[in-house]
Write a structure and sequence with these properties.
Blueprint (H helix, E strand, L loop, with lengths): L1 H22 L1
């Protein structure tokens, strides 16, 4: 379960980066 949590956090980080790049 902890492993899935890490993947989720990583996915959120990627999504956030893409959102910030798209905003620019």
């Amino acid at each position: 379960m902890a492993r899935a949590r890490v993947d989720w956090v990583r996915w959120l980080g990627v999504e956030r980066m893409e959102t910030e790049l798209a905003a620019v």
